[in-house]
Design brief:
Elements: H1 11-21, H2 40-48, E1 53-60, E2 66-73, H3 79-94, E3 103-107, H4 114-129, E4 132-140, E5 146-155, E6 158-167, H5 170-188, E7 193-204, E8 207-218, E9 221-230, H6 235-254
Parallel strand pairs: 2-3
Antiparallel strand pairs: 1-2, 4-5, 5-6, 7-8, 8-9
Helix pairs in contact: 5-6
Length: 255
């Protein structure tokens, strides 16, 4: 029996027929929309993993040709060494041969922790000054109520010391420490001489302070240099530091 040409297929039969005739579309791989067809991202990850490299940026054309590579490195590596590392890594891992002229390298300044920066700053100031305070020693003598005050400074890695005898009292130990410090500095100066004008211990501004005055003679010129230091340890230590404070700039120009 021949089918009636005037009978139309129902809707369900039409859908099933269309579905059977339509070509099967392959499923897209997960994350295909975010794919890296030219391997640019892979190259950046590879370059960032190199020693000393902080960040990497690869610039490519629409067809995937690499036109620029920008590298940011820490200090300690030469630009030439970084370029060689980049060329070798791209060739060995990704099979990309890149012209070294397409690679630019920038370096960051050395970044240190705050404590390390402070220590370096103190050492740098001491080096420029040329004379570093080390310590003060106070020892009793055979004479009752008298002591020996010894001041130790350092210059160019060599310790220099001088001692003064004094009565065992704050004021006299302070003067002895200041005088011993002046004695060391006077021995270092070849053009001029230094003499202690006086040392004073005062309580002001809710603190205990030491002030010293020094007569500095250079040629026919005489100047009064004044220095100060807060007493945080002993008065002897403050006295020595006050002398160094008074002569800091002057010594820097001479030593």
């Amino acid at each position: 029996m021949k089918p009636d040409k005037n009978v139309k297929p129902n809707k369900e039969e039409s859908v099933q027929s269309a579905a059977s005739e339509a070509p099967v579309q392959p499923r897209k791989a997960q994350g295909e929309a975010q794919a890296d067809p030219w391997g640019i991202r892979r190259a950046e990850v590879l370059l960032t993993s190199l020693k000393g490299v902080l960040s990497a940026r690869v610039v490519a054309t629409a067809s995937g040709e690499i036109t620029e590579v920008h590298i940011l490195t820490a200090s300690g590596l030469t630009a030439k060494q970084v370029v060689r590392n980049v060329e070798s890594a791209l060739l060995a891992q990704l099979g990309i041969k890149l012209d070294h002229r397409k690679i630019s390298v920038a370096q960051t300044a050395e970044v240190l922790p705050l404590e390390a920066m402070e220590d370096r700053a103190v050492a740098e100031r001491a080096r420029k000054r040329g004379v570093i305070f080390r310590r003060v020693e106070v020892t009793p003598t055979e004479t009752p109520h008298r002591v020996t005050v010894t001041v130790i400074l350092e210059r160019d890695g060599q310790e220099l010391s001088a001692r003064e005898n004094a009565a065992d009292a704050d004021r006299t130990r302070l003067v002895a420490a200041a005088r011993a410090t002046v004695s060391i500095l006077d021995g270092l100066v070849t053009d001029g001489t230094i003499d202690l004008a006086g040392a004073q211990l005062s309580d002001m501004f809710d603190a205990r302070l030491v002030f010293v005055g020094l007569h500095v003679l250079q040629g026919r010129e005489a100047r009064l240099h004044v220095g100060a230091c807060e007493v945080k340890g002993s008065v002897e230590q403050a006295g020595a530091l006050a002398v160094l404070d008074a002569t800091n700039r002057w010594l820097t120009s001479l030593l």
